[in-house]
Structures are given as structure tokens and as C-alpha cells.
From TrEMBL:
Residues 132-133 are annotated as: Important for donor substrate binding. Keywords: Glycosyltransferase, SH3 domain, Transferase. The lineage of its organism: Eukaryota, Metazoa, Ecdysozoa, Arthropoda, Hexapoda. SUPFAM superfamilies: SH3-domain (SSF50044). Belongs to the glycosyltransferase 23 family. Residues 1-260 form the GT23 domain. Gene3D superfamilies: 3.40.50.11350, SH3 Domains (2.30.30.40). SMART domains: SH3. It holds the Pfam family FUT8_N_cat. InterPro entries: Fut8_N_cat, GT23_dom, SH3-like_dom_sf, SH3_domain. One of its GO terms (biological process) is protein N-linked glycosylation. Residues 269-330 form the SH3 domain. It comes from Aquatica leii. This is Alpha-(1,6)-fucosyltransferase.
Length: 346
């Protein structure tokens, strides 16, 4: 969608045989366009095509032979100065607005979500946590104990209780492994533990790739987006989706999400750049030196206040204090669509 926006073209989504639902995208979400939904009668050319190409066929983002300049982490030039004032990471806001346009549910999907949310009984305040476990069975993703998540939840509720007489501690857990639910209930009896009632009792590998399970995934997403605080791992595709969708609910939704493992990144991005604003002298062999102006490609984030990255100047990789860098914004000139009458689009 962002490439189409940058090229001033209409995006047509072909979702036949979609891995998440046999009916395709339009059975779950509304079509991206009410009038332009097929290009069957027009000759297509493969990406990147040319300016004169009527229809350009885009492959999956990780199969692009020529990477578009409009892909994240690029931020539109006409928006960047305003975004820097109100947001700590403008690219997250920008992607969130694109997702807001795409994320339009069909009535049947909305009815399912509303019905299930009423059954679950969601009340505020509550903390949402997303725990991904079964991918361990496939690619040995790093394991994080439930205590790692709940330590942050405890801190959140402790801070609330210092200011109010609030006593009810409530958590919604989104997971594909029911043992996470039973473990949390046993270890944290003082909490009300809420969850999707359709979690399989026996863990399955990639359950969301089973037909109709996407409804439960969307249910989790909508509940987590309503949480007062979200704790997850930004190494997870779902956590990154939630992180950007949070921007549709808040001016700066990044403050409502805590990741226990990584900074935000976009699939197939070139770098995750940070600019050094304070110098740092390495205190041990695991750390790297920094001087103001250095550009760091960040790979990992730790809750102890340190990040892991590679210094472009020295070519060295190591840990450094996270507060000594700031987001390096990638600015790209996008079309501004000044020729469009906004009054006619409302």
C-alpha cells in the first residue's frame, strides 16, 4: 500500500488461496477499493515496470528485485517536521495511518468480535500481554518466561495503586499455547486472567494459518489494542502490528507498548538506524564506543537500558546505553496529492 501511495497508483490486492482464510481478504476485511478491484483485462508487467506501465505486478516485499525508496523506514518529507514535534518515532505513526486505512472489518467480522468481547467481559483498566510460544517448535525463537512479562505488569499496577485506591488487577493474555494461561493463573492468583476462549488445549504449530482461526487472531488484536498497557516482544510480527495500530488510538501510541526483547523494525528493512547524541566509552569488551553523530544499526534491546548494535563508523558491534541515541529518521519525498479536492473525499 505504501509503494502504491508513493507511485500514485491504485493497489489491487489478489488474495485467492490466502493462507489465513480460504475466502480471501474480502471475506474478513473490506476491499481496499469500492471501484477498482481487478486488473484481469489489462496486460501487466513485473516490478519495477516503468512510469508508463498501466499495471505493475508486485511480488511479496521480501522478493522485490529492486527495493522501492518508499518502503519503511521512509517517512514523507511533507510530514516529518510536524511528526518530530509530537512523536518519538515518526515511521511508526506513518505506518499506523496506512494500516488504519487497510484495517476495515467486514460486518460479520465485527459481529464476531463484539460477541466474543461481551462473553469474555473486558473491563478497564487492564494490561494486555502477547506471548508467542509455539514458534519455538519450528525455529527456536528465544524463550521468555511469563515472569518476564508479569514483572512489568506488576510495576504498572503498583504505580496505579500509589495514586488511587484501585485494587483489581486484570490481564488479558493472547497466546496460542494454553499452558501459558494455566501457568499464569497458578503463579499469579491475585490477578484476574482473561483470554480468548478458543485457545487450543494442545499447542499447534502456526495455528493462525488454519482456516477461520484468523477470527480469533483479530479478536486478540482488537482486545489488546484497547489495553491500557501492552507487553509483548517486538521480534514478533503480531507485536509489531499491534505497535503500529496503537497509533490509531493515541497521538503517540509507542508509550503504551513495552517490548521485552527488541526495538521496532520493519520486515526486510535495510537498517534500523539510531543517531548518537551522547558519547560513551566502552566499560567492558561487550560494549562499544560512541561519539555524537555516529550512526548505529540497532539489532536488539534489553530492559536493563542497553541496546545491541553496530557502529557504522568503527564497524564494531556491541552494547551501549539506549538513552545515548535517538531515532535517525529516513526522509523521502512522497507525492502530496495537492491536486485532489479534499472536500470531495470526505
Amino acid at each position: 500500500m505504501i509503494i502504491a501511495y508513493g507511485l500514485e497508483r491504485t493497489l489491487i490486492l489478489e488474495s485467492q488461496n490466502w493462507q489465513y482464510h480460504e475466502g480471501g481478504w474480502d471475506r474478513i476485511f473490506k476491499s481496499l477499493s469500492n471501484s477498482c478491484t481487478t486488473a484481469d483485462a489489462v496486460a501487466t508487467v513485473d516490478w519495477p515496470g516503468s512510469h508508463d506501465s498501466t499495471v505493475i505486478r508486485l511480488p511479496q516485499v521480501d522478493r522485490l528485485s529492486h527495493r522501492s525508496q518508499y518502503l519503511p523506514l521512509a517517512v514523507p518529507e511533507d510530514l516529518v517536521n510536524r511528526l518530530k514535534i509530537i512523536h518519538g518515532n515518526p515511521i511508526v505513526w506513518w505506518i499506523g495511518q496506512i494500516l488504519k486505512y487497510v484495517w476495515k472489518l467486514q460486518p460479520r467480522t465485527t459481529r464476531y468480535i463484539n460477541y466474543q468481547m461481551e462473553k469474555i467481559g473486558i473491563e478497564h483498566p487492564f494490561v494486555g500481554i502477547q506471548v508467542r510460544r509455539t514458534d519455538k517448535l519450528v525455529n527456536e525463537a528465544k524463550f521468555y518466561s511469563i515472569e518476564k512479562y508479569m514483572d512489568i505488569v506488576d510495576e504498572y499496577y503498583n504505580s496505579i495503586e500509589l495514586k488511587t485506591n484501585f485494587t483489581k488487577r486484570r490481564v488479558y493474555i493472547a497466546t496460542e499455547d494454553y499452558s501459558v494461561i494455566t501457568e499464569t493463573k497458578a503463579k499469579y492468583p491475585q490477578y484476574e486472567i482473561l483470554h480468548n476462549p478458543n485457545i487450543p488445549k494442545i499447542p499447534k504449530v502456526n495455528p493462525i494459518h488454519s482456516f477461520d482461526n484468523i477470527f480469533d487472531l483479530i479478536l486478540d488484536i482488537h482486545i489488546l489494542l484497547r489495553s491500557n498497557l501492552l507487553v509483548c516482544t517486538l521480534s514478533s510480527n503480531l507485536c509489531r502490528l499491534l505497535y503500529t495500530l496503537m497509533e490509531t488510538n493515541y497521538l503517540d501510541g509507542s508509550a503504551n507498548v513495552i517490548s521485552i526483547d527488541s526495538v521496532y523494525w520493519y520486515h526486510n528493512q535495510e537498517y534500523n538506524k539510531r543517531k548518537v547524541i551522547l558519547s560513551h566509552n566502552a566499560e567492558n569488551a561487550a560494549e562499544i564506543d560512541l561519539i555524537p553523530g555516529d550512526i548505529i544499526d540497532v539489532d536488539e534491546y534489553s530492559l536493563n537500558g542497553y541496546s545491541l548494535g553496530t557502529n557504522f563508523r568503527t564497524k564494531k558491534t556491541g552494547w551501549f546505553p539506549s538513552f545515548k541515541v535517538e531515532v535517525e529518521i529516513e526522509v523521502v519525498k512522497f507525492p502530496t496529492y495537492s491536486n485532489i479536492d479534499n472536500k470531495k473525499t470526505l
